[in-house]
Amino acid sequence: MSLVQRALRDCLGQFASGVTVVTTARDDAVYGATVSAFTSVSLDPPLVLVSLDRRSRTCERLVGAPFGINVLGAHQRDLAWLFAGRGDLAEAPDLSWGDDLAAPRIGGAVAHFSCVPWASYDGGDHVLHVGEVVAFDAPGGEPLVFHSGVLGEFRRPSEGAAWTGSLDGPAHGWAAAFAGHPPLTGSSTGQRT
């Protein structure tokens, strides 16, 4: 990798993203790859896109095959590393598979999309796989995130966090002055209507 490519990769790494594992099955075997380049494309028809390194074994196995996109939870960091090639799938004690007729589904994921191939596009050293979503589920939970080469957690601010430490916060009494007054609506002059 050249210095310019490394600098570009580091700059792109400033964009925090979720972490997915894209899965498919061929000849009774399950294949998967950790992917952070995932996005929605369309609601009608329902389309999503994943970008895989064209050198990866999973990339070539997605051609013409149904695939799953498993959005990993914060508790699944080890699975992200496993499907990134840093471990042995046969020795993954925390890996469980959910029921899905179209594509392998990782148990415990915060969301899952079952897709059939829609189109594939050349993306330089990657292939952009667009899938039509045929089923989806979002059990929820805290997602695993990726930023600057680090897997971490997304933490929601506690209630009132925006006002924490501020003397301008509603807890200091100013909001009480507006209690019982009708809200301002549809006026650019600030007059109540």
Report what the structure shows.
The protein has 193 residues and is mainly beta. It has helices spanning 3-12, 57-61, 77-83, and strands at residues 17-18, 20-26, 29-35, 38-43, 46-53, 67-71, 97-98, 105-106, 111-123, 126-137, 144-147, 150-153. The radius of gyration is 22 Å and the shape is globular. Helix content is 11%, strand content 37%. The termini are far apart. The chain has three helices and twelve strands. The protein has a seven-stranded antiparallel β-sheet with strand order 3-2-6-9-10-5-4. The protein has a three-stranded antiparallel β-sheet with strand order 1-11-12, with no helix packed on it. Mean pLDDT is 81; it is low at 184-193.
From the structure above, extract its key features.
193 residues; mainly beta; 3-stranded antiparallel beta sheet; 3 helices; 11% helix; 37% strand; globular
Q: N- to C-terminal separation?
A: 63 Å
Beta-strand proportion: 35-45%
Helical run tally = 3
Shape: globular
- Strands of the widest sheet, in order across it, are 3-2-6-9-10-5-4
Tell me the series of helices and strands, N- to C-terminal. HEEEEEHEHEEEEEE
Largest sheet: 7 strands, antiparallel
The count of DSSP E runs of length 2 or more, i.e. the number of strands, is 12
Q: What ranges have pLDDT less than 50 throughout 5 or more consecutive residues?
A: 184-193
Fraction of helical residues: 10-25%
Structural class based on helices, strands and sheet pairing: mainly beta
Average the pLDDT over all residues and give the rounded result: 81
Work out the radius of gyration: 22 Å
